[in-house]
């Protein structure tokens, strides 16, 4: 993975995190400026957006500038970015994830319009749907996975090129835990390709006892540590999945601290506990992934 070449250190770190989660191709530099980067949307590979960042990003009152070749996509992108922008906080990951349902809605609207359009209008709408990376004639193949889990997310944490994010959801049975995990792995390709997806859950049974279990997914002892965290936080009827993309540098025991950090934050953001995250500031939010 080539290193980002922006003169802005915070932007470099954010680009490295996005490349670890998605791929090197998600952001590429342009010849226009070292602060202008082309974003290739992972769920719409035919769509490209150019971002121009300030030298002081993210410590600026205004978000980065967005340009592109498809006006409808640019308009939506600017609106989503404005809703996510907070001076002093990086925003690209939240932007990429939040933009997806908006573009899917645009594709759906365009696809619906094709059925009432002329042959010429139908071709235009289908072409835009293709640009967004979606074939309206192809089913998504996920109808049997059940409803989307009500994930609450932590913020993305990067440490020595390893990237961590946690998801928490309310569950009431082991079957629901497995359904939610299966839904996540089958509908999110980047999560499915991650190095580890570590699971822990804790469910209160009618008898008052607890159904508890965990899965390291190759990250030795991580699942049991997450299970211990759920126990000492006294949460119930909840599952947590921590996704880690390994960056090539061993973290040693620090990896457990980071896994617990994002786990705790997802629980707080999901309303399972009322205590603040580290530093007293809630960075994450509920989200659909």
Automatic annotation (TrEMBL):
Where in the cell is the protein located?
A: Cytoplasm
- Give all residue intervals belonging to the RWD domain: 13-106
- Annotated region (Disordered) at 107-152, 270-289
Q: Does the keyword Transferase apply?
A: no
Which keywords does UniProt give here?
A: Cytoplasm, Repressor, Stress response, Translation regulation
Instruction: Give the species this sequence originates from.
Output: Ascobolus immersus RN42
Where in the sequence does UniProt note compositional bias of the Basic and acidic residues kind?
Answer: 121-133
Highest taxon listed in the record's lineage: Eukaryota
Protein's recorded name:
UPF0029-domain-containing protein
Q: SMART domains annotated for this entry?
A: RWD (SM00591)
InterPro entries per the UniProt record, alphabetical: Impact, Impact_N, Impact_N_sf, Ribosomal_Su5_D2-typ_SF, RWD_dom, UBQ-conjugating_enzyme/RWD
A GO CC term assigned to this protein in UniProt: cytoplasm
């Amino acid at each position: 993975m080539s290193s980002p070449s922006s003169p802005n250190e915070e932007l470099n770190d954010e680009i490295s995190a996005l490349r670890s989660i998605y791929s090197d191709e998600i952001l590429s530099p342009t010849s226009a400026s070292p602060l202008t980067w082309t974003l290739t949307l992972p769920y719409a590979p035919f769509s490209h957006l150019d971002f121009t960042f300030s030298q002081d990003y993210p410590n600026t009152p205004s978000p980065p500038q967005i340009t592109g070749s498809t006006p409808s996509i640019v308009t939506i992108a600017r609106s989503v970015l404005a809703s996510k922008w907070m001076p002093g906080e990086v925003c690209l990951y939240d932007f990429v994830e939040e933009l997806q349902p908006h573009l899917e809605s645009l594709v759906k609207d365009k696809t619906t319009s094709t059925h009432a359009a002329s042959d010429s209008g139908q071709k235009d709408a289908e072409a835009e749907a293709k640009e967004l990376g979606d074939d309206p004639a192809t089913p998504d193949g996920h109808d049997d996975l059940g409803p989307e889990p009500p994930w609450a997310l932590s913020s993305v944490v990067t440490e020595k090129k390893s990237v961590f994010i946690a998801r928490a959801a309310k569950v009431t049975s082991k079957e629901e835990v497995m359904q939610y995990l299966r839904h996540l792995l089958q509908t999110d390709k980047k999560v499915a390709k991650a190095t580890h997806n570590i699971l822990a859950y804790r469910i209160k049974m009618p008898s008052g006892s607890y159904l508890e279990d965990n899965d390291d997914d190759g990250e030795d002892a991580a699942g049991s540590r997450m299970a211990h965290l759920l126990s000492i936080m006294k949460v119930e009827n909840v599952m947590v999945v921590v996704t880690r993309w390994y960056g090539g540098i061993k973290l040693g025991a620090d990896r457990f601290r980071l896994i617990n950090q994002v786990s705790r934050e997802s629980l707080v953001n999901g309303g399972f506990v009322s205590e603040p995250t580290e530093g007293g500031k809630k960075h994450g939010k509920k989200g659909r992934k």
